[in-house]
Amino acid sequence: MSTEMQTFTEKYDLLGCIQCGRCTGGCPVTVRANLNVRQFVNDAYDEEKLEELARLADIWDCTACHTCAVRCPKGLKPLEVLIGLRSIIVEGGKVEPTVRDALQSVLLEGNPWEKSRAARSDWMEGLDVKIADSEVPVENLFFVCCTIAYDPRVRMVAQNMVKILNKAGIDYAFLPEDESCCGSEVFTLGEEGLFEMQVEDNTEYLNEFDAKRIITLSPHCFTTFKKQYPDLKAPVIHYTQFLAELLKEEKISWKGEMPKKIVYHDPCYLGKQGDVYDEPRELLKSIPGAELVEFERCRERSLCCEGGGGKMWVESESKKERLADTRIKDAKALDADIVAVACPFCVLTLEDAMKGLGYEEEMRVAEIMELLGENLDI
Description:
Oligomer: single chain
Strand content: 5-15%
Largest sheet: 4 strands, parallel
CATH class of the largest domain: Alpha Beta
Low-confidence stretches: 1-5
Number of strands: 8
Order of helices and strands: HHHHHHHEHHEHHEHEHEHEHEHEH
Helix content: 40-55%
Radius of gyration: 21 Å
CATH topology of the largest domain: Rossmann fold
Distance between the termini: 64 Å
Number of helices: 17
CATH architecture of the largest domain: 3-Layer(aba) Sandwich
Shape: globular
Strand order of the largest sheet: 2-1-3-4
């Protein structure tokens, strides 16, 4: 066995796989694509097959939802075999233009959306935002996320957070335009070298601040920092955990009732990967007049929206019903007025599905911060 094959086998612990098939059996993508994670793990034993496997379109159907990792009885992460195969393609420079451009944008501008770094703080316009200073200690250091910073649809996540913080008198600071992509999508797209550079640079930058904790607005940043940034000095939490604390301490209050039926969609990166399930529900349950209902597939069984794993930049070849469409249909069956989420990618994918199905007059997709901004006394 060659050194190269040993490296691939050891890196992804292929010898630990018992080929039970629980990964493929639980993979949500299998209902609309030919992806067979177990088969990829099995075939990757053969060094001569790696290049051939890497050229298969199926490797790009994975959304990195981590369902396979949750179900694996050996504690393995089968999805990372697919990411490893993507790396072979990326290193060979044979990726789709959309992937290439996203990765180049991270390298040059610190975000995958091909936006100027100078515009990263535009969302702050008109707000009294406290900016982090490495010379001034701060209790809560906020990391915004590329998508929230640049996408007009989800900017209100950061904007409403600022209003809540100022109203509650919280000691906080947001990073200036020097903030860069956490590298979540860089990792799942298979650009290992760029991801390692992002981890190194971001760790050095974030550690310059004397912060008691780092609060992320996106689950993608949350899980990436928690699991793949071992040298961060400050602990990392998601904003729903932070706001649940404020709720218990009675530092935030409601201004009225919202008599709506709400169903909460567990984002894969917050639930399956981050093990945060209760805090978002606590926030939604606390809204006066609101009724919280549950999907049949919820918590660790939540159905992926297909927004993660670099899927924003890779279109699936499958023409079958998208998982986001299935999710919205499930919400409609529950007679839900609102599909609440706590992830910018979920907002975009589920809202597109809702509009595509023609349900926009009957329900809405809303980020939890959007609902709080409408109902909190801020």
